[in-house]
Design brief:
heterodimer, A: 360 residues, alpha+beta, 4-stranded antiparallel sheet, 10 strands, 52% helix, B: 390 residues, 4-stranded mixed sheet, 11 helices, 8 strands, globular, binds flavin-adenine dinucleotide
Chain lengths: 360, 390
């Protein structure tokens, strides 16, 4: 049994951290947000081929598996990167398509094209529920899918439609005709969402997933959101410890007050538990262990809540400065709150767990 | 990253499982009273020793097996699975022993360590005093030179298992030096006239800890551990082992949760409907299940660091703080499902029910013993997060 990361994994983590610091620091992220244009980050992620991390080299990816992807998302969270395009692309579109027999071709195309794809599902629910209320007539699709992550600007959409037990995957190769995308503004401005309206849009059915395959694909997205929340929490704790060490009140650094120390210590307890959950789930999914999906739910439910608790502790410990637009904490705070709901709330995953535990 | 057993660990697991299957004797439930429980447990400990399963990770020269910490963990996992008895030698095997291995003289090791593993000697810890709890360095028990040895005067309190212990690890003041500097670490034979053990009843009625009055007790000259006046350093490593023993302790949260689920499955709410359909109950249970899973994974993470020869990092310091409230909440939830019958005197009620109540109370003790929750948070903040002392 070995829990530690290997050398390559550590190198990957460091490389992402350095790249983020150098080219996508908080000042830049703020500028992109102010201009309401995140495309410089998308381009930067493509240049670094991050879309291909966790995708086999034979398929044109960078190699590695779920652990590497989780490491990447933890780092993206630490830097509060506008990671939606990676989540929707690497976690969503590629994650679902890779499970299809013909998915490999599709993958290569997406990777080559820079990967501006979106998984066309309501982002507030587990993605394996698919898109509801879409009518299919031949190869024409009609309906509305609300709150789709990264729909605005997507070059193509992958639309999972529920079947009896599983999902049919439809590709909408042309988002110009019959597809109308209305952007939605979120409090977290580093993520793009939109409502997708389909009116006789042309689709290609590229295959179908079993219920199990759908749950596994969703588990990967859930895991990546969890890993990102872990990174957010770690960074918020770092920011907090640094700040309270410098801020002087009553003639001493506020970090020397026990109430302050205890709040920080409790955040650490949360974070270390989340770390255990995220990386075990990543490993278990990667290795196809039977408990991988369940552990991804556990990681999602716990890590996103832990990040929210950390966010609130961090805000309180910063005092009023943390409540300002100018302070960076708000960027992390809002993402933590969003991630709680993204691709399924803790409540929805706990209900699934209760089902597995067969309580009645 | 790889969570599978390595080949030799998997083989070890098989061997242990087979052994336990044939050996876990039908001991029946453990007696309630500590003194009786000790006698009930001793033959089992002896069997473990003879089969080479006592002190798994201790060096062979001290009666151990020299196995890896992973194999030790595997052994405990299998014990839990097989329903083997809980250990009663936590102080000796869990932290007095390891302290002696680290700091004791060759003669002390030869004399004491093997007998800990055979179950012949139980140990206790004479650290806390009425005026020295969280602030252990405020202790006032004094050791003065008495020929070759020392004469001990003072009073200790909250001493678990003193009534059944053969030996104690003892902190006493030997110098005039301030605070930490004048403290020495001794081994005290408990069965002697100057040692008076008076049981203290605990909240639940049992008497497992005690006051210990030391009135001219004698410590022979060869039972000083570490340097004279250097006892604080030794005590710190003891506390480290103690926290590790508590954090990786034998409360099997997986089994607890399984039992809680079974309890819920059979229960009906006031409205007569199955509790397992109640949305609040489902959410709460899934939340506890989540934390139980993470608690166990963190345990594995600590082990994997140890197995690679590293000192565990923040995950070890956070483990006690994560585990204690979890156990409290699992038990409290079970008690809330049972309802008022769950508050019945344990001796009068169904053992399966009584167990929850006992464990719920025990968990409260755990949040105090070995450094309270508040003290652990101070330690985390100062030593792991680098925040200033207050
Ligand atoms: C079940 C049980 C078994 C025990 N077994 C043993 C044993 O075998 N041998 C032994 O030597 N001792 C034993 N103890 C004693 C245990 O180590 C002490 O109880 C513990 O260290 C706390 O000391 P105290 O009880 O004096 O509380 P105090 O130190 O008086 O603390 C009272 C309260 O003040 C808080 N507090 C104190 N200082 C601080 C601070 N600096 N910052 C924040 N809060 C603070 C504490 O957290 C606590 O909430 C046992 C205790 C229990 C409950």
């Amino acid at each position: 049994m070995r829990f530690a990361f290997n050398e390559e994994q550590e190198m990957l983590r460091d490389a992402i951290r350095v790249a983020m610091q150098r080219e996508a620091g908080l000042d830049k992220i703020r500028r992109w947000v102010d201009a309401a244009d995140l495309s410089p980050f998308d381009a930067f992620a493509v240049r670094n081929a991050w879309m291909g991390i966790g995708v086999a080299e034979e398929l044109g990816g960078q190699g590695g598996g779920r652990v590497e992807q989780a490491l990447m998302f933890e780092e993206l969270g630490r830097a509060v990167a506008p990671s939606g395009v990676l989540l929707a692309g690497a976690g969503g579109v590629l994650g679902f398509a890779a499970r299809l027999p013909g998915g490999a071709e599709f993958l290569r195309e997406v990777l080559d094209g820079g990967g501006g794809g979106a998984l066309c599902v309501p982002a507030g629910r587990p993605a394996d529920q698919g898109a509801l209320q879409v009518q299919v007539a031949g190869d024409r699709l009609s309906g509305v899918i609300p709150m789709v992550l990264e729909a605005p600007g997507a070059s193509h959409l992958l639309l999972p439609l529920p079947t009896g037990d599983g999902l049919d995957l439809w590709l909408l190769p042309d988002v110009k005709s019959g597809v109308d995308i209305k952007p939605r503004r979120m409090i977290d401005r580093t993520r793009r969402f939109g409502d997708v309206r389909l009116q006789q849009a042309k689709g290609i059915r590229i295959g179908s997933l079993s219920g199990e395959g759908a749950r596994e694909a969703n588990a990967v997205i859930a895991l990546l959101v969890a890993a990102e929340s872990l990174g957010l929490a770690r960074r918020m704790l770092d920011l907090t410890v640094e700040y309270v060490g410098q801020r002087v009140q009553f003639g001493v650094p506020v970090a020397s007050f026990q109430a302050v120390k205890h709040a920080a210590a409790e955040a650490l307890v949360d974070i270390e538990a989340a770390h255990s959950g995220v990386y075990y789930a990543a490993w278990a999914l990667q290795e196809g262990q039977a408990d991988g999906v369940l552990h991804a739910w556990i990681a999602k439910a716990f890590a996103t809540e832990a990040a929210v608790r950390t966010a609130d502790r961090a805000l309180l410990l910063h005092g009023a400065i943390g409540y300002t637009w100018e302070h960076d904490l708000q960027l992390f705070y809002k993402r933590a709150k969003l991630n709680l709901e993204l691709f399924g709330s803790p409540r929805s995953y706990r209900e699934r767990m209760a089902e597995v535990l067969a309580l009645h | 990253m790889d969570f599978r057993d390595a080949a030799e660990d998997a083989a070890f697991r098989e061997t242990v499982r087979a052994w336990l299957e044939s050996e876990v004797p039908r001991l029946g439930p453990a007696p309630d009273k500590l003194e009786e429980r000790v006698e009930w447990w001793r033959p089992w400990q002896r069997r473990l020793y003879e089969a080479g399963y006592a002190g798994l990770a201790w060096p062979r020269e001290y009666g151990g097996r020299g196995a890896s910490v992973l194999q030790q963990a595997i052994f405990y996992e299998e014990c839990d699975r097989a329903g083997a008895p809980d250990r009663l030698d936590v102080i000796g095997a869990g932290f007095a022993g390891p302290t002696l291995i680290e700091h004791g003289t060759a003669a002390q090791k030869t004399r004491f360590l093997d007998r800990i593993l055979t179950g012949e000697d139980l140990w206790c810890q004479l650290f806390s005093e009425p005026g020295a709890g969280s602030d252990l360095a405020a202790l006032t028990t004094r050791a003065t030179r008495d020929g070759e040895g020392w004469r001990i005067e003072g009073q200790k309190v909250w001493t678990s298992a003193a009534q059944v212990a053969e030996y104690a690890i003892l902190l006493a003041r030997t110098g005039e030096g301030e605070r930490h500097r004048g403290i020495s670490f001794f081994i005290l034979p408990m069965r002697q006239p100057g040692v008076d053990v008076r049981p203290l009843r605990q909240m639940l009625g049992g008497a497992e800890f005690n006051e210990v009055f030391l009135d001219g007790a004698h410590v022979p000259g060869d039972l000083l551990v570490g340097q004279l006046g250097g006892g604080w350093k030794v005590a710190m490593s003891t506390l480290g082992y103690e926290r590790a023993a508590i954090a990786t302790g034998r409360v099997n949260t997986l089994r607890l949760l399984d039992e809680l689920i079974a309890l819920v499955r059979d229960a009906r709410g006031a409205d007569g409907l199955p509790l397992g359909r109640d949305a609040f109950v489902r959410q709460r249970l899934a939340e506890l299940y989540t934390r139980m899973t993470l608690q166990r994974l963190t345990g594995k993470r600590i082990l994997s660091t140890l197995a690679e020869g590293g000192a565990p990092g923040p995950e070890a310091s956070t483990a006690k703080l994560f585990t204690t409230p979890l156990v409290e909440e699992i038990c409290d939830f079970a008690l809330s499902v049972i309802g008022i019958e769950g508050q019945e005197e344990p001796a009068d009620t169904d053992p399966a029910r009584a167990k929850w109540l006992r464990l719920a109370y025990q968990a409260r003790g755990t949040s105090i013993a070995g450094g309270t929750t508040f003290i652990q948070r101070n330690i985390l903040a100062e030593r792991v997060l680098g925040m200033p002392r207050d």
